[in-house]
Amino acid sequence: MSNSGLQMFRTALDELGAVLARVDRDRIDAACGMLADARQIVVYGCGREALQVKGFAMRLYHLGLPVSVVGDMTTPPVGQGDVLLVSSGPGETSTVLTLMRIAREAGATVLLLTAQAGGSAVGLADLTLLIPAQTMADDQGPQKTSVLPMGSVFEGALFLLFEIMVLKLRELTAASPEAMRARHTNME
After folding, report:
1. What angle (nearest 5°) sits at the alpha carbon of residue 167, between those of residues 130 and 70?
2. 179 burial via Cβ count (<10 Å: 0-12, 13-18, 19+)
3. Structure pTM?
4. Are 75 and 108 in contact (CB under 8 A)?
């Protein structure tokens, strides 16, 4: 690998580390507690954020937690005791805002992951995990802070944050690695 290629890796990893270092650890713990105690968890994200959210849903299932993805035919209605976990890096995604309102009206608790503390979605969330990373809302001009394109640093930070949350949830739920592995599909 060329020196410039190695430098791109270092820069991207440094950016991800800097973003995650600024995420409030107490809020991460509160989010994990909320998920561990939920009657059921329903998750949603748009675009590439959806890929990270669906990967997290898979791990929640491996932990033995009741989880569904909005849009799947088997997703149940949400209500009291349930958690809707949504990701909206820009904090203004219309679909996310609509789903948050529906969940709140049904009595569910809303957990938001966003990069924009001032976005409309924050006002609809019961708990917000602020991930201070560049998204497509601020990836051009003087606002651009990342070597990575568009919302990639936010999406990468989501992946790493979710992996840490899985470790914390594994402790909270006392799920063994063997039990998690036993829940992995045999249909692939």
Report:
1. 60
2. middle
3. 0.91
4. no
Both tokens of 73, joined, read: 């035919």
Task: Say if residues 19 and 132 touch (Cβ distance below 8 Å).
Answer: yes
**Tokens, residue 23:** 């995420």
* Catalytic residue list: 155
Bridge partners for 113 per DSSP: 87, 129
- Contacts of the segment 176-181: beta carbons below 8 A, 24+ positions apart: 179/64, 180/59, 180/62, 180/63, 180/64, 181/62
Structure tokens at 71: 């849009």
Q: pLDDT tens across 96-140, in order?
A: 999 999 999 999 999 999 988 999 999 999 999 999 875 655 555
Q: Which residues contact 131 (CB under 8 A, 6 or more apart)?
A: 19, 20, 23, 89, 113, 114, 115, 154, 157, 158, 161
